[in-house]
Every structure is written in structure tokens, then in C-alpha cells.
Amino acid sequence: MLELRSIHKSYLDQPLLLGISFTVEEGETVCLLGPSGSGKSTLLRIIAGLETPEQGQVCWEGEDLASIPVHRRGFGLVFQDYALFPQMNVAENVGFGLKMQNLVRSDIDRRVTETLELVNLAGFRDRQVTDLSGGEQQRVALARALAPNPRLLMFDEPLSALDRSLREQLMDDLRHILHKSGVAAVYVTHDQEEAFSLADRVLLLHEGAIVRSGTPRQVWSDPGSVWAARFVDAGNVLEGTVLSNSGRMEVKTPAGVFEMDCEHSPGGRAHQAGDKVNLLVSRHAARPDAEGMIGGIVVDVVFRQEGFRVSLDNGLDFYLPEAPRMGEVLTLAIPGEGIKCLG
Prior knowledge:
By secondary structure, this protein is α+β, with helices and mostly antiparallel strands. It is built from nine helices and 20 strands.
């Protein structure tokens, strides 16, 4: 088990990581999700031993790794730029780490064959890596990291250089490979689609701290803050004022009056009339209803796989199963479970 204990790190005399603590269990994939500059890659380098924290510990099964050099930690790294050896063929690249372990040739060949089969490159042993596509090169990089049977895999934005269709394919393949191999993994990305597709658990980083932790479903449905909701694009965020809070809370917003369950503010005090709050309104729960609480003029309609994304003149947008007409006045109803109070 990997455990980080109160990791602190500065960059150019500015705090970058402010007491980061988390664990990664056996076979678990944890995604560090956050914007550029949030410290994700620095955290990965600290785990790998490529950088040292100013405070805190990186431990494996309770052992502090501070004195353990990079090559003895038993961790595998997969980078965005693949970092393959261009003068070597596929089998030589995959077997490089095994050769450094001074294994006999037959054991190296057997493990290279097994790993290439795992990443669906069984017929690529003798290919030159410079002749491969980007997706194939990334698979070779993954095979090279897997071949020495690492106790932890680390990924630093590995799919960001690939086009969308290839990224989606590799996300599916990578999830399958990680589950089949059973290796624990820490995956760094700024892309919430990648994080939600691959992770068993998502850690959302903002301004040097973990602001939300949970399964992809938990983080998506209940991001916990305005910043997190906007970053993961969990829905429409509305500022409002509490009208009353007796059993159910009524909140007045520029888009209408909403009712929901939200008894307490983040500080633990019950919301009172006049309090300012932020609401998260689901894009997927809305349905046309003449008696609905939200009304607006349709200003844009775009087809998406989830349905038609409909934008209204009040700045809100929703997914609907059927496309309304441009310029149509649309009235929508949203059930209670489609509205959350962010505090």
C-alpha cells in the first residue's frame, strides 16, 4: 500500500503542495485530477523519488521511502512523450528494465511476450518503435513499465498528445489492462473524462490541496464546492438567496425559485432567510413542462451523444431527448434530486 503523509512542496518560493495526504490500496487506480499548476505532476515525481518533499513522507507498506533511490522503489512510470529508445525495437524497449535486473535471456523473452500480449501488441516484437503510431508507441511504453512486475504504476498525462478517438480507445484498453494486471496505479490528468473513465477513486487538486475525494460517481454527483462543480462541469451553477428554510429550503435565483433539501451551511449553521447560497442544477434532469420552474429562449442547440445540448438566453444549458426550435420559449421542470446546494 502507498501512503502519502502531509506532503509539502514549494516552487519559486510559492507554496505548491499544502499537506497532501492519501493512500492507494492494492489493485486500486487513483486519479489526481486538477488544472495545470495544481501540483499533480510534482506529486507524482515525489512519489517516484525524482523530487523530495520539503515536509512529509512517502511510505510503502509503512516504510518511509526517503532513503530508497528511484530504481529500487519498484515503481513504473509512463510519460506523455513515451520516452522510448528510438534505436531499439519493440521487444528491446519492453525488455530494457528486465535486462537491468540481470535476468537470464529466456526469462526476459518470456516476460516480454506475456506483456506484449497483455497490451495487444503480440505481433510487434521486431518492429522499430519509430515506425509505430502514437497509440502503438504508448502501448509499448505501458508494456515496458509493466514488464518488471512493478508494485505501483504511475502515469503522467499519458494520453494528452493523442487525438480524441484514439484517446477513447486507449482509455478503454488501459482500464482493462490495469484491472487484469492488478497493479496499483496513480494517474495524473487535467481531463475529467479520463479521470472518471479510469479511476476507482478521484482526488481533485486545487491550490495545493485535495478539495474532493471519492469515486467518479460521488465526485460528479456531489462535487462539494462551486470551484469543483465548475471544474468537472457537473452542471449549471447558480447564485441565489434563501427565501425560507422550514423543512425544505426555497432559494431565489436569476433563473427562478428552487426548492431543495439543504439544512446547513458548510460551517454547520442552518441556512436562514437572506443567506447567499450556490446551487448545482443538473443538465440531465430537466424536462419540458409548461408548469416548470425554469424558462428561457432557446439560443443554441447542439447534438451530443447524451442528447441535444440546449442553451437558453439566461445562460443555462440542459440535455434534452428532442431538439427544440431556435428562438422557442422553453419552460423546464427539474425534480428535487436534480438540484443540490453547494453552500
